[in-house]
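INFO batch 0412 | record 1 of 1 | parsing
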Amino acid sequence: MDMSSEKYSGIIPALYACYDENNEISYEGTKALTKLFLEKGVKGLYVGGSSSECIYLDRKERKRMLEAVMEVARGKCTIIAHVACNSTKYSQELATHAESMGVDAIAAIPPIYFRLPDHAVAKYWNDISAAAPNTDFIIYNIPQLAGTALTPSLLKEMIKNPRVIGVKNSSMPVMDILQFKQILGEGKVVFNGPDEQLVSGLAIGADGGIGGTYGAMPELYIEIFNCVKDGYLRRAHEIQSDCLDIINGLTSCHGSMYAVIKEVIKQRDGLELGGVRHPMPDIISEDMPKIKKVVELIDKTYKKWGI
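INFO prediction complete | emitting tokens
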């Protein structure tokens, strides 16, 4: 890996949307969460994606979130800003703003709802990239939610754009990571997306991971990354198994996973991050005993692995 891609190698949590008592984006809450992640030693932050509840936020809110992050993190870690909206025009607006804030890269899913042909998706991504001409561009492949998959032929078309430096791959087949690495070539990066398969993603060639549950237990994922890098695959596998148990707990409540994770962070780290943006479901009283068990499991797992 060359020096230009080294900054993208490692564990990059997807940032959560932080709300105030009026369910509006909390500037101070976002800064506090950013500071917490920096203290925990993450390589960077992925801002404005699924974990940031981006499809429920307007452009002003997404800009405000990124501005809060950059006030704390500028020059201290790698920042990737997800800027996709269904409209090319609005995506370009967010891309231009992200570049003005000095992010390391912008990222975008394909447009959702309408099934567009590959040439239209390529134009959409290239138009967004053109609005931030001095900033790296990362393709976000998440076909199970976006409804459009990154195909080898589409990726080959996209790498004609010199700003395209990699793929955030959240498809479940691990072989996609290997295939995308082969197409991208030297100096480009692929991130593992599914948290449940970080070990296998790294083993087959991913340069790092971007994940929605990383924020609940970042040190465990950092340890997985370091173990794989240093050849301790059995330890990495066993920690991954423990993380899967925690993920199962995070997804077992009435409230959405993101609402649960924010409560976990509140209980473990003392940060009040608010709830979630409706129509995502809030946690209810019956969730609290389950969340307490998740917190206990995280603490137990940290102790088990000496973290």
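INFO post-check: The chain has one domain: 3-218.
INFO record closed
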